[in-house]
Design goal:
Length: 244
């Protein structure tokens, strides 16, 4: 893997109590980064993630990131607890599969707010801290091929949100590039723990946690400081059209 920039000493990983977020947070701790573990309701799992972290000085932060006030508090608590905030990984985001016209208004809203709104709300609070420091890294978790529309009646609001993240990433990167900040997206394909999988993936296997960590390492390498506003897919050649 790429060696991460030594200036990345502190990080907030949203939704890091379980699954992808936990794996990314633990990998960062293995690189010597102090990590703020964020959760909304899974306190015990979040505490376990923090307990497993290899770099001391990490903290727990709780909040519903769909709420802009709570998102602001979470970012502030993370920065205060860690002594700064060099990296924000926007991982949090819910996912459901349900027919477009059977979905409730609450389910529709949650898919947009937990994926897209939460990403923006956290970024909005973290960027001023990074601008003041003259350095920062933001890595958003998107969806494979998320820079173009995906059509699936069972996942409409989710894909609207992930396409929105691609737009947000490019726009935000241009706004902060002169301040030493990069903003990029990891496009996640089909994971080993995904709910639905194609029968025969192009690469012969599905993505593993180590693959996501490798993509994160690339964006955090000192040699990648001119890679800004882009998306790196971890998909093994899979594209959304290959599964309904």
């Amino acid at each position: 893997m790429n060696k991460i920039d030594p200036r990345v000493k502190t990080a907030l990983v949203t939704g890091s109590a379980k699954r992808n977020g936990r794996a990314l947070a633990l990998w960062l701790s293995e690189q010597g980064v102090k990590v703020a573990i964020h959760y909304m309701g899974s306190k015990d799992a979040a505490q376990d993630t923090l307990d497993q972290s290899q770099t001391p000085g990490g903290v727990l932060v709780q909040g519903d990131l769909r709420d802009p006030d709570q998102a602001a508090r979470v970012v502030k608590e993370a920065a205060d607890g860690l002594g700064g905030l060099d990296l924000l990984v926007n991982n949090v985001g819910n996912y459901i599969r349900k027919d477009l016209f059977e979905m409730s208004a609450e389910e529709w809203r949650d898919q947009l707010e937990s994926n897209l709104y939460a990403t923006y709300f956290c970024m909005r609070e973290a960027v001023p801290l990074m601008r003041k420091a003259g350095f920062g890294r933001v890595v958003n978790i998107g969806y494979a091929a998320g820079e173009r529309p995906t059509f699936n009646r069972l996942t409409v609001p989710y894909h609207i949100a992930k396409t929105g993240i691609a737009t947000l990433t490019r726009s935000a990167a241009a706004a902060v590039a002169k301040q030493g900040i990069t903003i990029n997206t990891i496009g996640v394909g089909i994971m080993e723990n995904s709910v639905v999988k194609p029968i025969d993936p192009p690469a012969g296997r599905f993505a593993e946690y180590k693959d996501l960590c490798n993509a994160l390492a690339f964006f955090l390498s000192a040699d990648s400081d001119h890679v800004n506003g882009t998306q790196l897919d971890v998909s093994g050649g899979w594209i959304p059209e290959q599964i309904l």
